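Z., the sequence and structure:
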Amino acid sequence: MTTTTPGRAPLLNALRVGPGRPEPLGATQVPGGCNFAVHARDARRMWLVLMDPGQGTVLAEYPFPEEGRVGTVFTARLDGVSPDRFDYGFRVERPSGARSPVLLDPYARGLAGAGAWGERPRYRSRLLADPGPPAVPRPRTNPADLVVYEVHVRGFTRDPSSGVGRPGTFAGLREKIPYLVQLGVNCVELLPVAEFDETDNTYTAPGTGAPLPNFWGYNPVGLFAPKSGYAADATADGADAEFRELVAELHRAGIQVVLDVVFNHTGEGGRGGPELSLRALDESAYYLLSPDGEPLNLTATGNTVNANHPVTERLVLDCLRGWVTRYDVDGFRFDMASILTRGGPDGRILDDPPLPAAIAHDPVLADRLLIAEATDATGVDQVGSFPGHGRWSEWNGRYRDSVRRFLLGRRGGAGDFATRFVGSPDLYAGRPTWASVNYITCHDGLTLADWTAYDRRHNEANGEGGGDGIPDEESWNCGFEGPTDDPAVLRLRARQRRNALLLLLTSAGIPMLLAGDEFGRTQRGNNNAYSQDSAVSWLDWSQTRENAGLLRFVRHCVALRRAHPVLRRTTHPDGELPDGWSFPPVSWHGENPGQPDWHPSATLLAVLLHQQQPAGPADTVYLAANTGGVRRVVHLPAPPPGTRWHLCADTGAPAPLDSHAPGEEPALDRSSLQLTGHSVVLLTAR
């Protein structure tokens, strides 16, 4: 029986409901109306719920025709009304006879009712018009040539110092594209932009008791829908249009777009969480459940997605294809990707999980970047062993840990970092160097400035007693905890930041920068700022002036990487000397050429990278890093015949002498280097 709301007859009387098609899933516009198809194995019956697009009030509920049911897919075709006249949802009758609340379409391209940032959402599904093909061709940058820049859409421009007209939005980020071009990055990795509920956080601010947000967005509600709260026009249609415009303009500037996607858990949480969609439609297909029916919690968020169930596998693939075909994004970073290797019912790690393979071999995704965060909340670490199928790259957390220990002069640091510097061949043997996404900082943890300013986390503002976040980040405050005016401490911190950035941007693999590290952004020691929608998480753009020397240094390092193919090789270099080469692809040195120090206590590492070019001169760079606190003298190997060493960067020198733009490097008039304590020097042969 159809139920309607009084006063809505003009809209509803013209409608006709009949059986629809089971493909594609979700809601699609067809001539004269709309087709609805939804998998709901746990439902005895289902209703299509139509809602007012302005207020969200229910207008009518139509039963899905029994003759339209195909297997576990309920179908209905609605004729006689344009989709812009209504929002929609579903209601199911469970085997017990109880009815669900109005559910979201898991395939909805738009979610209405989310509202502006910070408003409590009243979600409902919306059918969006087909935007047509992309307006701008996407840049076809080789993975080895990428420099990735990790960005939180709201935090990037929310602070008044950003100077944009629409702060905290897709449009605000679009206004900053000239800055990204000037910095030299050619790929942005956006923290989750799929619809999430930022008001979903149980913790409150100490002292005030004010609710804290879920700022980062790792609690997805609509996997296919851009977040309305990130749009200046905070509607489903506005978010859709603004995000498409953002991607197009980034592509126009030569910048690729990678999305951080969350398929390991959802915003439905544990058993006491909201019943939004998947739980009522087919809980055991979409979630891992214990024998007594409780959601497994391998993600520390209340539930765990049953990623390798065929129904869920299809949902994930359809979602990825949707972001590619509708918005033309260039790739994906998969949060807690180790969950994608687990199978039901107990969540065990599968020997050959089907979902990573299906993603790797999907024809629509064939030329898109795939990046796994190869861990999960249980402590599983698959860095180097995630099933890559020749396609996947990985966030290399071991690179992060290694470079930090090396720069702090820890035992064994030099030898381990040497392996990371050439692309971690111990982890990625037989794979290209771009399998390793190298980073020193990311959204999760201390910023680079804070890594040099704090020995311990300072997370009291998160309302969790200060015990949340990573316990030990291998950080060093350089002699004083937190802000200081001590010039010696400040100089040392400045060198350590430059050391880290120079090593990152000369290492084999894909380098990733955390937004704001290039000008010294601080989170005041907070290393788990997921709940901080404040100056703690917002970029303070005034620091681009205050730390202009650091910003200039980073621009030079990015340009240096772009100028030297030897830093962007796709294969791991070895020490064998090819015929006709002046040097092997990589050679290691110490205070004297050809005499590296691999003792566990070593604090000096020098390396020469060389590559003969098919046409033109060879490309040769030499790097020496002194991670001890005393000055070291390094005797240089001879450069290739007919060339001289030129100075690219010296982190021990004051700005602006600490770096030089490619082509402007001054020639050395000596055969040795004086390395200041805690400094790195880079030379090129010209």
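DSSP finds 15 helices and 29 strands in the chain. The radius of gyration is 27 Å.

Let me know what you think.
H.
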